[in-house]
Amino acid sequence: MKKSQIIFLAVGIVFIGLLYSLPRVVVENSPESVPMEEVGSAGIPGEAEETHEPVLSTTEREQVNSLKAELDNEDDREKFTILADSIGNMFLDAGKLDSAAYFYGLIADKVPEITYLEKAGNTYYEAYGFAMSEGKTAYFADKTREYLNQVLEKDPSRLDLRTKVAMTYVSSSNPMQGIIMLKEVLEEDPQNELALFNMGVLSMQSGQYKIAVERFEDLIANHPGNIEGQFYLGVSYFESKQNNKAKKQLQMVKEMTDDPQIIAGVDNYLDRL
Fold first, then answer.
1. What digits encode the pLDDT tens for the residues 40-91?
2. Residue by residue, what is the 3-state secondary structure of the chain?
3. Which of 2, 163, 178, 252 has its CA 20 to 30 A from that of 25?
């Protein structure tokens, strides 16, 4: 999970704003369906496109269109893979995660090997984290599960991928399935970094700050380099009225990073202590 997906802070931001900027774990009922039949000029599902910056330049768009024309007429699997991967990489470099995931998915559909399935699933998961509407959130979550579950069928030991799949359920109409999956991961690996982090985030979002403290304390005890976890531990101390611990933790976080977003968040909470 990229830091930009979980930390969007500025001086003066209130805590509820922070929670809305966390990973997509809000329970949403009856998400709208997203029709994916219509395809844009570059071969990208129109309804799935997001507005990530930076966008493709005119020259890059022309290159994509040229590659797409070749791709449409390519039957050889190896050449198809090379072309689709090239297009996906161009979109990935431009920050267009949804479009990159679409082309990686084309490869995985044609050549369902673990490497390609995982690449498509992981990229859809990244796009899912940035989705700005219920329909797109639901669609990218479905695509994440489609590809990562195929990897898990081949290799059930991949706890990192199971955790990602779990998080897509948390924002669905069946959030408890995600919670259960995260707990199962922690039963197998009590020190799992991603599962501990996400369980802490979920506890924060549900207002269970004392439980969040326990999760984040476990996280940083085993993964002290997780700066986001260190920060959220300080926030959880603050919200659970453990002011002395909050102050000490947040001051320590400020010494651990030079990231301006995290520092702005730390200063905001320190000003409120």
1. 433 444 444 444 445 778 888 888 999 999 999 899 999 999 999 999 999 9
2. CCHHHHCCCCCCCCHHHHHHCCCCCCCCCCCCCCCCCCECCCCCEHHHCCCCCCCCCHHHHHHHHHHHHHHHCCCCHHHHHHHHHHHHHHHHHCCCHHHHHHHHHHHHHHCCCHHHHHHHHHHHHHHHHHCCCHHHHHHHHHHHHHHHHHHHHHCCCCHHHHHHHHHHHHCCCCHHHHHHHHHHHHHHCCCCHHHHHHHHHHHHHCCCHHHHHHHHHHHHHHCCCCHHHHHHHHHHHHHCCCHHHHHHHHHHHHHHCCCHHHHHHHHHHHHHC
3. 252
